[in-house]
Amino acid sequence: MSLRYSVGGRSANTAATANHVAAALWNPSTAFNIYVREIWVTKTVATADHHQLNYITTRGTAGSTVTPDTDNDYTRQAAPPSGALLDLAAYSVQPTLQTPALARRNLPATIGSFLVFDFRDVPIVVRPGQGLAIGTPVATILQASDFTFVWDEL
Amino acid sequence: MQSCRASIAVNRAYTPAGANEFFVGIGLTGTIGATDIPVEYIYLRKLEIYQNNTNAKSLQLYHTKQGGRTAIGSLGQYNFYNNDLPAGATMFPNVFTHDTQLLNFQLVSPFRIQLGPNVGDHAHLTFPEPGIICRLTNEGDSIHHSLSLRVAESNPLDLNITWVFDVVIPSL
To answer: Could you say which residues from 33 to 72 on chain B have a Cβ atom under 8 Å away from some Cβ of chain A?
Structure first.
């Protein structure tokens, strides 16, 4: 049986620059794939913004990073074998984004408005040295938001 | 035969020339070349549409073929969920806009939906297995086919659209 993990964190605003990343699940492993099942986005600011989902092939330099451990394992047995990391804006060096986007959405100017990117039936495979990122597709700030990534390993 | 999940997203923001205009679609174009993965059909599995202005929209999906259209996005390796296709290979499903009315469409739409007038209003449509088919060509028909959205209203639209589909590939 595979291991199920999730991790959450809050980003800072991105710049008002197209293709800037707000949050990414990065796979630093040299051996293990990760299989993303869901991504949740919740707004903390009453300003409309836009979202796109892309693979990234370099990590960039994140504003902050959350490191999942045993407590992020749904069975609370092991830290992620991949060493997966949640990187959050604002980046000082942007990741390398692969286009065109896998998905695009937008949220209203309402605190608490909510998105779930759902890959429950067919997960997105993130291979070693790659990541999956949510960013802004247009030259508008992706506002400070709460992000949660849910994924499987092994 | 192998089926691979893929998705591609676009934003369409413009004012239609008139009512009932096709404005975005997904389809298979061209002829299969030596470096191409020979995709001959896809199945649409999900369609996600997000409202980004305050004009309510009535939308219908149609099976369409030919007509004026301009490609605005082509699948690459990183549009496939298994991210394991040969680098540099050209994929066939294209998301494209329509710069004129399509020449031909089937008269019965698989669905019609009403999208609300608030930024962030959305529709998530799911089509259980196998999904809605779109072929490169139909039997006895050399014209390229597509699945296309038509909007009833002629006022400005601004929509974010994600097409999620299974690509059927003979071998990899």
So the answer is: 48, 50, 52
CB–CB of A103 and B7 under 8 A? yes
Q: What is the pLDDT of residues A91-148, one digit of tens each?
A: 999 999 999 999 999 999 999 999 999 999 999 999 999 999 999 999 999 999 999 9
Predicted TM-score (pTM) of the model is: 0.92
Give how far Cα B9 sits from Cα of A68, A120, A122, B6, B79, Å: 30, 19, 17, 11, 10
Q: Are A5 and A84 in contact (CB under 8 A)?
A: yes
Complex ipTM tops 0.95:
no
Q: Which residues contact A101 (CB under 8 A, 6 or more apart)?
A: A52, A53, A54, A137, B8, B9
From B168's Cα to the closest Cα of chain A, the distance in A is 15
CA-based nearest distance A112→chain B, Å: 12
Residues of A at the B interface (Cβ-Cβ below 8 Å)? 48, 50, 52-55, 98-110, 113, 119, 122-127, 130, 137-138
**Rounded CA gap, B52 and B11, in Å?**
9
Across A31-45, A84-98, B32-46, B136-150, least confident range: B136-150
Residue type, A33: N
